[in-house]
Amino acid sequence: MVVGEITQERDLIIIGGGPGGYNAAIRAAQLGLEVTLVEKADIGGVCLNKGCIPSKVYTHSASKLDDMKNFSSLGIETSKPMMHIDQLQEYKNSVVENLRKGVEALCKANKVEVLSGTASFLTEDKIGVEEGHNFDVYKFKHAIIATGSTPISPENISIDNTRVFNSHSIFDLKEIPEHLVVYGSDYIALEIAMSFHHFGAKVSFVLDEQKDSFEFDDSINRELQRILKKAKIKLYKKHELLAQSVTESEISLTLHNDKGDEVSVTGTHLFVSYKNQPNLNSLGIDRLKMEVNEDGFIITDNQARTSIGNIFAIGDVTEGKQLAVKAIKQGKVAAEAIAGQTPEVDLTFIPTVVHTTPPIATVGLTEAEAKEAGHNVKVSQFSLSGNGYATILGKKDGFAKIVTDQDTEVIVGVHVIGAGAVELITSGSIALEMVAREEDMTFPLYPHPSINEGLLEAVEALKGQAIHLPPTKQK
Amino acid sequence: MVVGEITQERDLIIIGGGPGGYNAAIRAAQLGLEVTLVEKADIGGVCLNKGCIPSKVYTHSASKLDDMKNFSSLGIETSKPMMHIDQLQEYKNSVVENLRKGVEALCKANKVEVLSGTASFLTEDKIGVEEGHNFDVYKFKHAIIATGSTPISPENISIDNTRVFNSHSIFDLKEIPEHLVVYGSDYIALEIAMSFHHFGAKVSFVLDEQKDSFEFDDSINRELQRILKKAKIKLYKKHELLAQSVTESEISLTLHNDKGDEVSVTGTHLFVSYKNQPNLNSLGIDRLKMEVNEDGFIITDNQARTSIGNIFAIGDVTEGKQLAVKAIKQGKVAAEAIAGQTPEVDLTFIPTVVHTTPPIATVGLTEAEAKEAGHNVKVSQFSLSGNGYATILGKKDGFAKIVTDQDTEVIVGVHVIGAGAVELITSGSIALEMVAREEDMTFPLYPHPSINEGLLEAVEALKGQAIHLPPTKQK
């Protein structure tokens, strides 16, 4: 190894070029800082290259296949679709490349110095960057750790990328499984299950860790289960995973159901989305005595600052939900704090989005969480079957649900499953952040006809005043 | 004619069962009033039966045809689509019937008395309702006029419903025109032009009244014109309409361009969306000396009350924009006022939505309006070509534009053209109504990847801090 002769000096070094890292880098550059970004693989990180973006390409294709069910009503005659997963993968690769090049160009335009290599802390103000035979040492004023996470599997499952896949490998699977078994419960497990269902695979879904449901508001969980059932996706709840076996043509999971009976689920392929561990092993933060929680995630304050004052940490390496939206926000806030501003990241109202068919988007407290938090809870729900625009779309599954504090009429949660949920959820986010009361959401005008009116009517239903719900169905 | 022997008494009589009327009726019933709704044709009015709903069925079909351009990228192999407008019309009819029956059932469930017939005021507290040979007289405490409007044509165009159509007849046209000429500039002209373009017609578009553009924010107007051009829809601006001629197989418009040269536009069919006149002719409001403006529209206060204290008017018969969203809001407010509440309708932030491909949705002031209103205006714009989710969708046309007051940082206008615009616009409406400042829109978390992030980046661009815009393109 060739160790650089001199220690180079840098203002801000960001380790990891995923969404958190590159958003931090560009925001810091916008604020006048000189920024160095160290990435050992591809700019864009797991989210862009192997996670959220590829998954959305798949779910988008799946939703277009789903749309075709209504084509003949809409006067559109066409042949039964054939799915070519190789073409979809080419498109996925071109989208990923296109976006990655875009981010690289933005880094360049913002004069962000990009170093290729693996970084590790030497002291609280020095890191080494190893690339091939070179090892360069940099002294920094500030650093941001944005190294992300890596999927891990349950003990008794091993990923072979031939029959058994995780999120890093599933998007390279060159065939549509005859029978895909999904083990997990998170957004990517749901997106994979729904995508391959639409692509023509038989899908079975085993909830991980003996869960008895997904982790949304109970009403969403129920609707989602109804939708999975309608799609003939069999759901295994409260089953303990005992063993996995793989042959040349099959995979099989051995489970115990909640009565202790042995159940076997056999398919042709297995997809596992279990947990992600923070990428901290080779980073040397133990050397720095940086505070981590019991699961090994870095503890940060509301400016994404670690226990070491000049080092920040963002995204999947930190405590809490592992979502790109969190990494992006923390990244911007860290950059702003380093630039001398006084920003704050508040993850209370982090939106969760799943591109199932129909999509799910929620923000704020579930009904159960609101009760647990001590609110005098009032809820209401408006089914999209009562929404004119959903009728036009032929997409009447789903609803909007509102959770409020009865005493203050402040809205504390917005939960949508149905067409347009993702785009609509930002109405909820803005309302929650602005401490909107019911009337703040009923006063504005909602375009007609639109799915948006479903959100309005959900709020109106709190007072028994949804127009398109019969009086008996309203409190 | 058989005149009813006795004058019957009613609390609240609503004349007209369109979106304004039926929303008013149901809201009034929800608040404990006894409600009588008089409708001479179909419940749901023009919007449901002949206007916005049918138009959205057409635009939805058109958008699905447009989606198919990306199918092969998405791995979906299918044959070239054939468009069957008769099937689409069947679907349109079934949607309309389904929705109308839904509204009828809701009226029933809310114990709204529905009378079939034509109403006219006899005095300030009496109306007659004529149905066939019967004429019944009703004394009322309150009345709401919700009779809507009827499309009219320019002097030199006559609608024959064979070659020349307006919005009441175009949705029954049984063929796809070889060459459709559209005369107008409003949302329905745009929706018809775009729909038939996707259905395979050649489309030419003549702006009415010698307009030189559409009536959105200038940036939207430009993007829309670019999109029309890309769709090979020829746009005639600043042309004066001189004459129309119709043969058995052709229609032709004779125009003068702005240089005074004669221009002829010939097609196989003509669609006209010009103006709508209030349906007040047989209503007898002149007898009541009700105040109307110079164009004959009823003047109302911010509770939708006319100059006669116990009579309210809502929707297209009143001054201002002729949009269902206005009628619905005014209807609810009128009902609440009559029930003794103190509601208010504020139409400042009325959303305008057009289901072109891509859709347009705007709320609040345009840049020009904001300047005229005396704001120290600052604007920013974020192109969807920089949005990751738009890239996945293959829908990179369009942008989000924000108009703010520089001195207060209060947002005064949100303008979106692009995928997801309609669902996204309610974020803008809520923000505007809550007097959001820039930071109220940058503080919340936006799901990743999503079109929603385009809205965020448009706001961030106000300070030169959109992540996905190079520094040179931001101020």
TrEMBL record, chains A, B:
* Domain spans labelled Pyridine nucleotide-disulphide oxidoreductase dimerisation: 350-458
User: Is Nucleotidyltransferase found in the keyword set?
Assistant: no
Q: Which reaction does it catalyse?
A: N(6)-[(R)-dihydrolipoyl]-L-lysyl-[protein] + NAD(+) = N(6)-[(R)-lipoyl]-L-lysyl-[protein] + NADH + H(+)
Cofactor(s) required, per the database record: FAD
Tell me the protein family, please: Belongs to the class-I pyridine nucleotide-disulfide oxidoreductase family.
Give yes or no: UniProt keyword NAD: yes
Q: What disulfide bonds does the UniProt entry report for this chain?
A: 47-52
This entry's comment on the bound cofactor is: Binds 1 FAD per subunit.
Q: Which Gene3D superfamilies match?
A: 3.30.390.30, FAD/NAD(P)-binding domain
Q: List where this protein forms a coiled coil.
A: none
Q: What name does this protein carry?
A: Dihydrolipoyl dehydrogenase
Query: Which residues are responsible for catalysis?
Result: 448
| One GO MF term | flavin adenine dinucleotide binding
Residues that, per the record, bind NAD(+): 184-191
Q: Which GO terms describe its biological process?
A: 2-oxoglutarate metabolic process
Q: Which UniProt keywords apply?
A: Disulfide bond, FAD, Flavoprotein, NAD, Nucleotide-binding, Oxidoreductase, Redox-active center
Task: Give the residues the record marks as binding FAD.
Answer: 56, 147-149, 316
Enzyme Commission identifier(s): 1.8.1.4
Ranges of residues in domain FAD/NAD(P)-binding: 11-331
Name of the gene? lpdA
Q: Which InterPro entries match?
A: Class-I_Pyr_Nuc-Dis_Oxidored (IPR050151), FAD/NAD-bd_sf (IPR036188), FAD/NAD-binding_dom (IPR023753), FAD/NAD-linked_Rdtase_dimer_sf (IPR016156), Lipoamide_DH (IPR006258), Pyr_nuc-diS_OxRdtase (IPR001100), Pyr_nucl-diS_OxRdtase_dimer (IPR004099), Pyr_OxRdtase_I_AS (IPR012999)
Q: Which organism is it from?
A: Lottiidibacillus patelloidae
